[in-house]
Amino acid sequence: MVKALVVLVVVAGVLPQAHADGIVLESWVKQRSNDADRLLSPVLDELAKRRFVAGPEAVGRQFETKVSRPTASLTMPPDFVERVERGHSAWISGKFDDAIQILTPLVDAAHANPALLIQNQQLRERLQRALIAIALAEHRRGDPATMRTMFAEIVRSYPQAELPRSIYGPEASQQFEAVRKQVAAQPKGRLTIDGDPTMAVFINERFERVGGIKNLELPPGEYRIVGQVGDRTSRIYRVEVEAEHDATVAIDVAFDAAVHSSPQWSGLVFDSVPAKKQFESKYAVRFARATGGNAVVVLTMEIIDSKRTLVGALLNMETGRDIRRASITLDPDPPESRLRQLGRFLAGESDVKGLEAVVMDRPLAAVATPDARDDGAPSRGIGPWPLVTGGVALAAFAVGGALHYYNGKCTTAERPGIPCEEEYKFAGPGWAAIGAGAALTGVTVYLVVRSREPASKMAVIPSRDGVMAVLSGAF
User: What secondary structure, in 3-state letters, does 89-102 show?
Assistant: First the structure.
């Protein structure tokens, strides 16, 4: 008696067609094209319909909130020192409202331009003078809480700061020392900064050390962190240090130099074409991950065959490789319909008529699934599995045929005139083997078709009464 048991489970799922968390970045060399808004707008419209987000508010603001801000988000007045002195004089004269009105924008501008204060410590000293005048003016206006908040900022940024009685009076000096003692008595938090070993680290525009920082104890509060390597300065990292908690920030000055976020556009800007080619995909994926995006489209303009060309690419979030890429020649100006077609293609549609398009990796649906995996290959390779399943299917058919051949025959040698005492009963196992062969044939077809990125999926499964075919796909 021959017994065969084949168990086969086929699971067919439907993947989403649109991505809920995709972002769109622009990428340029040195400066953005003057006609970028006009040419990119139709592409962005189509991507937005398919739940990709773009622009300074949706993308740039997220990056600034979650990661870092540009080092010059506000214009630094060229007469900064003179204006600080004017505001300080207003406080001395008892014009407290005027002092606050003059000095507050100057403090905001200084905090938004740390590189200037790092290079010019005179500006940093004037910033301290502005903070003191604001704090005391707020106190005179009947707001001691704001005064204490400003004093705490001064203590964290200028550990050696003092308010001499001869200049600010005994009351202001005593209140400042009281805040200093209060800050010193608070449980400390710990700050770790990872970065290039040659990077100079500045905390609240004050030089801390060269190289990384491990578990630096600081009073609780918000700190502005900046790194500098050579003549390059990082973006501003605002880190909230909490009492008895750890805070960590990783700074890559080269990456920060490429990131651009402004009220006009968001994306990447490179010093040269070679740098763009080398780092564009890597930095775009990193940008998307930092903002919580699970897909990223990069739009740029390049010179291809001596022609100005608009290029769009959907990137694999795991490998940085192109999933699909398409380009449109901009000479002559393309019709708006063609630009919209580019947006639809990058979002996952298959219409490539009129586009120089290539699908190089897995489709958007596969990348849009959080659990999707990538083997790093340029196609959805399936290796030797079709050969294995196909070979086993043929063997199963052969076994089924043999079992049916022997079904009903005597178990012993047949002799004339002597009835058969016992017959082979192989009908059930024979059909089971044939059903398994059919199922494995279906699996083989599925694997071959899947390697060509099908729009639908097929499986053949043996059932109680025969064979069941299952077709699934996205509709």
Answer: HHHHCCCHHHHHHH
Q: Is the torsion defined by CA of 68, 258, 278, 38 positive or negative?
A: positive
Q: Which residues contact 443 (CB under 8 A, 6 or more apart)?
A: 8, 10, 389, 393, 459, 460
Task: Report pLDDT digits (tens) over 357-389.
Answer: 777 654 444 333 333 333 333 344 456 777 777
The tokens describing 462, both together, are: 């043996």
d(CA 183, CA 156): 8
Is the pLDDT at 466 greater than 80, yes or no?
Answer: no
Distance (Å, whole) CA 284 – CA 282: 6
Give, to the nearest 10 degrees, the angle between helix 96-112 and helix 80-92: 150
Q: Select from 265, 261, 223, 266 the least CA-distant residue to 242.
A: 223
pLDDT at res. 361: 54
DSSP 305: T
CA dihedral for 71, 75, 81, 87, sign (positive or negative)? negative
Handedness of CA 299, 303, 305, 307 (dihedral sign): positive
In angstroms, the CA 135 to CA 154 distance is 10
pLDDT digits (tens, 9 = 90+) for 120-144: 989 999 999 999 999 999 999 999 9
Burial of 128 (0-12, 13-18, 19+ CB in 10 A): middle
Question: Which domains does the chain carry?
Answer: 22-65+262-367 (3.40.50), 80-185 (no CATH), 189-252 (2.60.40.1120), 385-473 (no CATH)
Residue 414 has pLDDT above 70, yes or no: no
CA distance 160 to 182: 15
Rounded Cα–Cα distance for residues 214 and 218 (Å)? 12
Is residue 95's pLDDT more than 80? yes
Helix (H, G, I), strand (E, B) or coil at 469: strand
Q: In whole angstroms, give the CA distance from residue 171 to residue 403.
A: 105
> CA 272 to CA 298: how far, in whole Å?
17
Which residues share a beta bridge with 206? 203
Among residues 2, 6, 18, 11, which one has the least CA distance to residue 369? Answer: 18
Q: Which two three-digit tokens encode residue 58?
A: 């949706």
Which two structure tokens, joined as six digits, stand for 281?
Answer: 């995909």
